[in-house]
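We were asked to recover a plausible sequence for a given structure. The inputs and outputs are reproduced exactly as logged, with field labels preserved.

PROBLEM: sequence recovery
POSITIONS: 145
GIVEN STRUCTURE:
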């Protein structure tokens, strides 16, 4: 009886782990997206090398109008998490500065495990506000260098 319980728990654990590392087959992993109400075109630029798990890293956000003009002086709030786990990001990443017109520095990003992550941005300017969600797959841990 005990052996059967242990066996079933082991199988359940493996099934959960497999489910966490897979995402829907039609998941859009593009790094450039139009916001929900089509007010902005947003591009995410991850670190040059894959982000290490359990390491803090920075991304860049390029924000433009639908016509392609850089959007300056925006306020961008960041949220996200793992939809399959039902938890948020392990840190509270923030846009800390505008590097140039339409290019913003997002600091404090961290992924605590492999799997499907969402990065959600809420964008506000004096002219408009909108949201956009990016999907990313963290597939293998990369050691910090």
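RECOVERED SEQUENCE:
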């Amino acid at each position: 009886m005990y052996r059967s319980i242990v066996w079933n728990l082991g199988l359940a654990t493996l099934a959960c782990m497999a489910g966490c590392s897979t995402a829907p087959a039609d998941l859009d992993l593009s790094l450039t997206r139009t916001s929900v109400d089509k007010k902005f075109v947003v591009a995410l630029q991850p670190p040059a090398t894959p982000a290490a798990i359990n390491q803090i890293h920075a991304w860049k956000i390029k924000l433009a109008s639908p016509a392609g003009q850089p959007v300056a002086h925006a306020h961008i709030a960041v949220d996200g998490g793992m939809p399959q786990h039902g938890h948020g990001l392990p840190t509270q990443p923030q846009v800390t500065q505008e590097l140039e017109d339409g290019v913003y520095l997002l600091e404090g990003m961290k992924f605590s495990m492999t799997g499907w992550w969402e990065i959600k941005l809420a964008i506000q300017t004096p002219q408009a506000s909108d949201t956009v969600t990016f999907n990313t797959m963290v597939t293998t841990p990369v050691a910090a260098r």
